[in-house]
Amino acid sequence: MSGHAVVVGGGIAGLAAAVALRRRSWRVTVLERRPELSEVGAGITLWPNALRALDELGAGARIRALGLAQTSGGIRDDRGKWLSRTDTEAMAARFGDGLVVLERRQLLDTLRDACTGVDIRLSTDVAGVGADGTVAISPGESIRGDVVIGADGLRSAVRAALWPAAKVRSTGMLAARLIGRVPDPDGVRGGESWGRGDYAGVAPLPDGRLYAYLVVPVTAGAPDEPGEALRWWRQRFASWHFPLPQLLAGVEPDQLLRNELFDLAPLSGLASGRVALVGDAAHAMTPNLGQGACQALEDAVELGACLASGATDIERHLETYSARRLPRVHRLAARSRTAGRVAALHGRVPATIRNTLVSLVPAARALRALDPVVGWRPPAG
């Protein structure tokens, strides 16, 4: 017998979990503290594992139609010299899909549209959560679920209630994200570029616009005021290769989204009683592998599979979910953090050695190294 699932958080992780459970005949209520469903960020890259998860959620075809399949990629230095090239055709042959890039809001909108029959309650603050499935809603109201899913992000209220020792860690890096245009978008090749302490990436979007991110140390002293901040970022990346300076030149201050990068120290488990965590609430990781949202989508599919039998033996099924997910997300979070440190190496000698070593890795070996990252398959049944 299927029961009632309360999902705290209406972002990508929360809506994906809602879709997964609804497809297993659960009654689902989503609690979102904001007055509307919205996603902070600019673009998003979906790897083959995320596309498989979206297929399981019934949204894969729409996302492929909305996004742009990347036909090139790799790593360059800040002057544009290629250190490593990604063979996207070989990737698609190996994993069944390549990379698809779209706006984050398009992914959220697609998941929202898939939430048929889901009760989404906006402007709803969660004041507390009990391991028995009770969710306190401000002021003075509560809701009870057979299962509660914490999908409320890095600063999760659900995690704070039941995992009070969890530790959010700064990476010491500050990111800026933007979507813009340049005069010759057809000449843009996607990928990441490494400087000495800074790094950046760019990816074409379907309508000719470009999504870009730029990352610098927090200690670099970027100002907070939007106009001053944009001038600072323009100057910081003025000597970098096309199209990064051109993109920065063409945007307005409010188009530059800036945030310090954090991750979550590994948790000992993702379930407590009738409560489970998904997405950033469970395993916030740095963006260096492009796996944050991808892992949230995997979480949703795995959770749905573990709860396929309905509202019986909830705690045992959630422990199964935790046991399945924990080793994988811990490995990927650690690998992502290491990748961020490598990309942010500063100093001429360390950066030169890094670039030389990367350029010596054969393309086939680099592709095989992605197996543990994107080789995930949905559970059978």
What is this entry, summarized?
By secondary structure, the chain is α/β, with parallel strands linked by helices. It has 14 helices and 19 strands. The model has no long low-confidence stretch (mean pLDDT 95).
Query: Treating each run of at least 4 consecutive H or I residues as one helix, how many helices?
Result: 14
Instruction: Record the strand order, biggest sheet.
Output: 6-5-14-15-16-13-17
CATH superfamily of the largest domain: FAD/NAD(P)-binding domain
CATH C-level name of the largest domain: Alpha Beta
As a percent range, the share of strand residues is 15-25%
Quaternary state, please? single chain
Average pLDDT, all residues: 95
Could you tell me the CATH topology label of the largest domain.
Answer: FAD/NAD(P)-binding domain
Domain FAD-binding: 5-335
Keywords: Monooxygenase, Oxidoreductase
Organism: Amycolatopsis alkalitolerans
GO molecular function: FAD binding; monooxygenase activity
Would you give an account of this structure?
The chain is of the alpha/beta class and 381 residues long. The protein folds into two domains: 4-73 and 96-168 and 263-345, FAD/NAD(P)-binding domain; 169-261, D-Amino Acid Oxidase, Chain A, domain 2. It contains 14 helices and 19 strands. The strands form four sheets. The chain has a seven-stranded mixed sheet. The chain has a six-stranded mixed sheet with strand order 8-2-1-12-19-18. A hairpin with a 4-residue loop joins strand 14 and strand 15. Helix 1 (12-22) packs parallel to helix 5, helix 1 runs parallel beside helix 10 (292-306) and helix 2 packs parallel to helix 10. The radius of gyration is 21 Å and the shape is globular. 46% of the residues are buried. The mean pLDDT is 95. Residues 5-335 form the FAD-binding domain. InterPro entries: FAD-bd, FAD-dep_Monooxygenase_BioMet, FAD/NAD-bd_sf. Keywords: Monooxygenase, Oxidoreductase. This is FAD-dependent oxidoreductase. It holds the Pfam family FAD_binding_3.
